[in-house]
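Action item from last week, closing it out:
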Amino acid sequence: MSAKRVVSGIKPTGNLHLGNYLGAVKQWVAMQDAIQAEGGETLYFIADLHGLTEWIAPADLRSQTIEMTATLVAAGIDPDRSILFNQARVPAHSELSWLLNNVARVGWLNRMTQFKDKAGKNREGASVGLYDYPVLMAADVLLYNTTHVPVGEDQKQHLELARDIATKFNNDYATELFTLPEPLVSAAAPRIMSLRDASAKMSKSNPSEQSVVKLIDPDEVIAEKFKKAKTDAGFLPDTIDELADRPEARNLLTIFAALADRTPADVLADYAGKGFGAFKPDLADLAVAKLGPIRDEMLRLLDDRTAIDAILEKGAAKARDLSAPVLRRAQEAMGLML
């Protein structure tokens, strides 16, 4: 396969915020445009099966899957250009995962650091799904002959596992079925911190409403949160290095640059020597201009859940067509088809 085929998934979470948008959703939109400009293909899925690894109420999982879909479409993922679906509609993800469980080694999974981080001290009480989800992640990408997978630092180990599983399967069953996916390295996603404490990531679990900008927030609330964001009394400097010990200032600069599609250094060139009395109102206006249309489109889509269901089913039908031959060849290779 000469053209790139990129596959990426995102767990359904509710109350999406600015950090989710700038750190993940906006990156997907840029990737869609860049990969397709090269003649490639993008598949994006809502990882609702992965959402089961820790307890979630069924109604919440359904609602959050719908909300995530609406957010992706409102932000610029085009269901006519990218294949957009939720995992559960494509049973081949689960079926291939079970086949790959018999290829993956326990020792490989024992080395996965994310399980240790997420399970904490209660490893014996964690679900088998939480332990085994890297194999499902391998199935997610191997199922589509994926050539490239966007990965952050915390996902590199899982992509290496997928490659190990693919290699062992191909060797064990004397086949060249599975493509070994390569990491797709793009511009580093910005790390967005709390507006009240820049030592902590922006999070919906923070008890302070002023710390997080939600994508659902009205324009006036977005503006107020930025105008009241914690800062220091200093002026903005000439260089980024001078913000090393000023986390709140650096966080606001990062947000401005990410929303404006500019580099932090470029933004500083406009505001060096100015105080936050000038900077924060401009940031508030920029945030409203960028997030307001996304919110409005998201709310419009959420008012028509039948349309969202149709989007997911359309994408799932395409994903099922792509995945069926790969699953069948895996079954044949393992002797499951008589």
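Closing note: The radius of gyration is 22 Å.
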